[in-house]
């Protein structure tokens, strides 16, 4: 039934204007706005919808993962852009976890949703 349907994902934020700046300028993604919603245009033709929600509660899990070839460089670049990485028991001083799977570092968008960069 859905074999040829181009499904897409979405998530909420509490401030569309802040999200547009963060995803468009800080992360460098192509972002468009339509009817009060943001569309993130991801490599490969995928789309993710960001919608406003006044009673938004940040996700307590990773909602979006960005695969990178060099996690050190990605973390350094994002840190220079003002992104603050989360610190957990398994992360180093930069916020990179190097155990139990691929090297990964988590950070939050302005609405508190959890994102990651992970080394492929």
Short description:
This protein has 120 residues and is α/β, with parallel strands linked by helices. It has helices at residues 16-26, 71-80; strands at 9-13, 30-34, 37-42, 46-52, 62-68, 96-97, 104-108, 114-119.
Give me some keywords for this one.
four-stranded mixed β-sheet; 2 helices; alpha/beta; globular; single chain; 120 residues
Give a written overview of the molecule:
The protein is of the alpha/beta class and 120 residues long. The protein contains two helices and eight strands; from the N terminus they run βαββββαβββ.
| Major beta sheet, strand line-up | 1-4-3-2
Instruction: Kindly state the percentage of residues in helix.
Output: 10-25%
Helix-strand makeup class: alpha/beta
Average of pLDDT = 95
Unreliable residue stretches: none
The total count of strands amounts to: 8
Q: Major sheet: size, sense and barrel closure?
A: 4 strands, mixed
- What sort of overall outline do the alpha carbons produce when their principal axes are compared? globular
Strand % is 35-45%
Compute the separation of the termini in Å.
32 Å
Order of helices and strands: EHEEEEHEEE
Q: Can you count the helices?
A: 2
Global Rg: 15 Å
């Amino acid at each position: 039934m859905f074999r040829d349907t181009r499904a897409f994902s979405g998530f909420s934020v509490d401030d569309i204007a802040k999200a547009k700046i963060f995803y468009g300028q800080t992360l460098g993604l192509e972002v468009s706005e339509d009817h009060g919603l943001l569309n993130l245009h991801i490599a490969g033709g995928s789309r993710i919808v960001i919608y406003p929600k006044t009673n938004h509660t940040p996700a307590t899990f990773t909602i979006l993962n960005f695969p990178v070839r060099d996690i050190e460089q990605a973390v350094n670049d994002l840190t220079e852009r003002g992104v603050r990485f989360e610190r957990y028991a398994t992360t180093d001083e930069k916020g990179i976890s190097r155990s139990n799977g691929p090297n990964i570092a988590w950070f939050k968008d302005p609405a508190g949703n959890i994102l990651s960069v992970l080394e492929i």
